[in-house]
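Justification of computing resources. Each target in the renewal requires a structure prediction run like the one illustrated here; the chain below, 361 residues long, is used simply to show the kind of job we budget for.
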Amino acid sequence: MVVMSCGPLMGFGLTARGDEYSAKGHIRVETRVAATGPGKTNGWNFYVEAIGDNYKVRIEDLKSADDYYEYACENGVMHIVHHVLPVKSPDTPAAMPLMFPARIEEREIPPNDGTRAQFVWFALAAHGFFRTLSEEVMLPIWSPEDPKTRRQPFPMAVFAELLSAPPHLPARVSFVNDGFYRSYNPVTEEMDVRKLAPPYDSGFTNAIYQVLSLTNTAKHTLPARFVFAVYSSPIRAGDVPFERVLVRGWVDEVADHAREKAQIARFTGEASVVDYRIRGTVQSLGQTSEYQYGAYPVTNAHWLNPDQRARLRGRIEHGIELRHRSTQHANRRLLIIALLGLLSIPLAWGGWRGLRQKPSS
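Resulting structure tokens:
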């Protein structure tokens, strides 16, 4: 299988701003490191809501719905909560509050963090992304073959067809590799790029998404079954691409409403938030410092409003300015000590010379 095209992007001029729907189902993911031999299979339940271009994806543990991962995107800002209950031991205090890691980023697609939420988004909530896609390229959403890379570093050409009915979700998408393999070199801290083995050096289909069957509500048509297959890169002569990652999805329930308003669900306990919207540069007293995020707790999903974020930003920058001032004072003290040390050298030298020149009795 070399290049497979699904035709031009269709339906991108259609709007989806008024769409509201939800879907519930499950996925099974098979991963392999070689064409032969046993692979590894995992499964999750999922719940999706969409209101216009905003959406929420929840990935649930098959054994316990209380253990879940949520990704809610609103106007390009994503809230992420890993609501995984800790395993309690006999020594765990009964009154110990629950604490969940959370993150807020400016992004459209769920991160590749192991929950496979990005594949559920692709199948059931990517209508806004594809409607505004103009250059027919996007970053791959799967994990890289080189584990040291940790992220896909290059965009791929995509050939997509969209469903003709609202909300115009993807029907079939091919990701086309340009004929090169890229891996991270820890020595040079750069990407090593090498051509793939012929005939794949002229490009090949690296991944395919396809809707296998449809379901519908009164207003929307959604996938009932879907599959996302990622193929290995044929690096050596004789290599043939095999299914490195195979995601199968089943939609069990659909509705024309979003009861949770496509937002993070309420939870009991605290979330330890890393907020990447709170970042900036502080210049004071001749020093420049950057901060990449603000860290703070939230209780019972009461997220900070803009005024609270502004006050937190002010406290962070005030702390940096105090540190600059402390550093300046410390440097000034060191300078004074050094000058005193330099001034004492001639005195000590003169005293030593005087002792040597003093006549002995």
